[in-house]
Design goal:
The chain has 325 residues and is mainly alpha-helical. The protein has 11 helices and 7 strands. It has 2 domains: 85 residues, no CATH class; 152 residues. It is elongated.
Length: 325
């Protein structure tokens, strides 16, 4: 008869440990009065099982789960990702402390008119623990892109690559993300300077499905509107960096402003092309793609840098703990 202390490990040991962990996560989420899509927990559980492979011991499961943090910490991240409250999707249902119908749905479209917060915007734009690519906007009406979910779905990152997104990225690298929208804004201003005198007094401001201009406006008004589209997000990003918000908030602000400046450049280019009797909507099409691609590339590069920093930190900690005292 095999001694109980010497029995061979079985998959049940690891699975039980994992199930207990996610049961604690579910309890912690419910304690916050929030509902989270069960598929998110299921996906994370499957991911942990994949990481285990043939390692069946409870200790192996604990090490794999430690990458997600404590159950309470994971629950907090999931609450931030889901952004839901009991009945929060019902129009007219208030969020405690906000006063008024500040969150909910109108004709099925989510809205959130709470005071804008950089960290809330960042959690919507980059949350690897949320499997949804389109999530409710952190401010306004409609949806925005969760670039982290897009990265996970394309296999470019894993949900648990970083304990806290961008937290271990060097401060200089986080600050350097402002250079991208800054350079794009400089390019936008150069394009205005080069093309201003070549534009007629009335320029195209709207295009139909066929690509033909069907709306016109004064040159100064059109260029001013595009300048605001480009400069306001950059100013917001600068303010986010100056206030020393979280690393995720600063990276997200830089990524958002980069995408908006890219869109402004493409619209200005489309205006110039149409004003000079060019055909096609290719400048605007490039800009629409750039609104997604440019922030995505910035997010991915910083995420990989953060993952590498965490790995170096963990290796250093392991080497230190392994030294004889």
């Amino acid at each position: 008869m095999t001694d109980r202390g010497q029995h061979a490990p079985t998959p049940d040991e690891a699975v039980t440990t994992i199930d207990d962990y996610f049961a604690r996560v579910a309890v912690a989420v419910r304690a916050r009065g929030v509902t989270v899509d069960g598929e998110i927990l299921a996906d994370l559980r499957a991911h942990v099982l994949d990481r285990l492979g043939d390692a069946y011991r409870a200790d192996d499961a604990i090490r794999a789960l430690s990458e997600l943090g404590t159950p309470e910490a994971l629950a907090a991240d999931l609450v931030d990702a889901d952004g839901d409250v009991p009945g929060g999707d019902v129009p007219g249902n208030d969020v405690p402390g906000d006063g008024g119908a500040t969150r909910g749905r109108l004709l099925g479209i989510p809205y959130d008119v709470r005071q804008p917060a950089a960290d809330r915007h960042a959690s919507a734009m980059w949350n690897p623990l949320d499997r949804r690519v389109l999530v409710p906007k952190a401010w306004g009406m409609g949806w925005t892109v969760n670039f982290a979910a897009l990265a996970v779905r394309t296999g470019m990152i894993r949900p648990d690559d970083e304990d806290v997104p961008f937290d271990t990225v060097p401060a200089t690298a986080v600050a350097a993300t402002l250079a991208a929208p800054g350079a794009a804004l400089a390019g936008f201003l150069v394009l205005i300077a080069v093309t201003w005198h070549t534009l007629p007094a009335s320029v195209p401001t709207h295009w139909g499905i066929t690509g033909r201009a069907d709306g016109y406006g004064a040159r100064a008004t059109a260029v001013l509107a595009l300048s605001l589209l480009a400069s306001v997000p950059v100013a917001f990003a600068v303010g986010t960096h100056v206030r020393r918000c979280s690393a995720r908030a600063r990276v997200a602000a830089s990524a958002l402003s980069l995408g908006m400046v890219g869109l402004a450049i493409s619209v200005l280019a489309q205006t110039v092309v149409t004003a000079h009797h060019g055909v096609g909507m290719w400048p605007l099409a490039i800009g629409i793609v750039g609104v997604v691609v440019l922030p995505f590339m910035l997010f991915i590069s910083l995420s990989r840098l953060g993952r590498a920093s965490e790995q170096r930190r963990d290796r250093a900690a392991g080497a230190t703990s392994g030294r004889p005292s």
